[in-house]
Design a protein that fits this description.
The protein is mainly α. It is 43% helix and 0% strand. It is globular, with a radius of gyration of 14 Å. The relative contact order is 0.19.
Amino acid sequence: MSETLTSRQVAHPMVKFQRQVNSLVKRDIVQPEDSIWKIALLFGDEWAHWKRELEEFEFSTKDPISDLIAVESWEEE
């Protein structure tokens, strides 16, 4: 309980997005081989933001969802 704020690691925002997408896969809403564009409608108004984030990491909406959920680290160089 004596953990300080400086010793905590803050997860990259893409980690939360990745978990949400992985949850969609686990619930059979989308399939890993589906293109990322299939999740656009599910994220509604937030999609524009997430699309920009994905593009910053060189993802295309044509890439398979499996590529997105396979990322191990979202550290920016």
